[in-house]
């Protein structure tokens, strides 16, 4: 049996052979952005039942148009500057994934991964606040980027979260993560989300383990 690393390498190589130039990426990112807007309005619309039925039929026809062109495989991932992985289909950062907020991440010279973002109603948990699983997803991903930027990438083996106070929806949030310790194949990363008032709403310690090949 091959390990997770070998399996991932095979997927990376297959996806790398796809032709995703920047013009195509921009076009698909635009489509994803429109679908995101549509998704939010599905949750928020006050349209009456007959109008909802008409729109549902139109969306079905649009989906069929894309399906007629055939199904490919998800876009690949590239490692960019500072070890940041550009993963276009990521559910967190992927510009081509309508489920992604998407958040943008930068890494400062000291290895801290940072992001500023707003999470709308699609990510609601308790009324008016962000779902705890979504906060976990953001911190997991940001921590993964910090581990990667540290030159010690890995799979999340553990994510220990503390929800300090509710994370508000629809307002600017920020988050940061930094690798604090490396022990062999393990990288420990600390991360946190801050509300608009600068107070921590959620914080985590994650351990990333580089799988054996
Ligand atoms: C290579 C990857 C490429 C990534 C490209 C970069 C992309 C960067 C940008 C994207 C960022 C995405 C960020 C999201 C990342 C996910 O979402 S990953 C998906 C979720 N995670 C998974 O599916 C992982 C599933 N688990 C596994 O595959 C395996 O259990 C693991 C994690 C690879 C470990 O397997 P293993 O090497 O057989 O584990 P094992 O030998 O038992 O343990 C190794 C060491 O880790 C320790 N350990 C294991 N678990 C824990 C824990 N929870 N706490 C503390 N220590 C632990 C063990 O005690 C052991 O320590 P030592 O005895 O060596 O001191």
UniProtKB/TrEMBL annotation:
The protein's name in its UniProt record: Acyl-coenzyme A thioesterase THEM4
UniProt keywords, alphabetically: Apoptosis, Cell membrane, Cell projection, Cytoplasm, Fatty acid metabolism, Hydrolase, Lipid metabolism, Membrane, Transit peptide
Primary residence: membrane
Limits of the Thioesterase domain: 128-200
Entry-linked CDD domains: PaaI_thioesterase (cd03443)
InterPro entries xref list: HotDog_dom_sf, THEM4/THEM5_acyl-CoA_thioest, Thioestr_dom
Domain of life: Bacteria
Membrane topology classification: Peripheral membrane protein
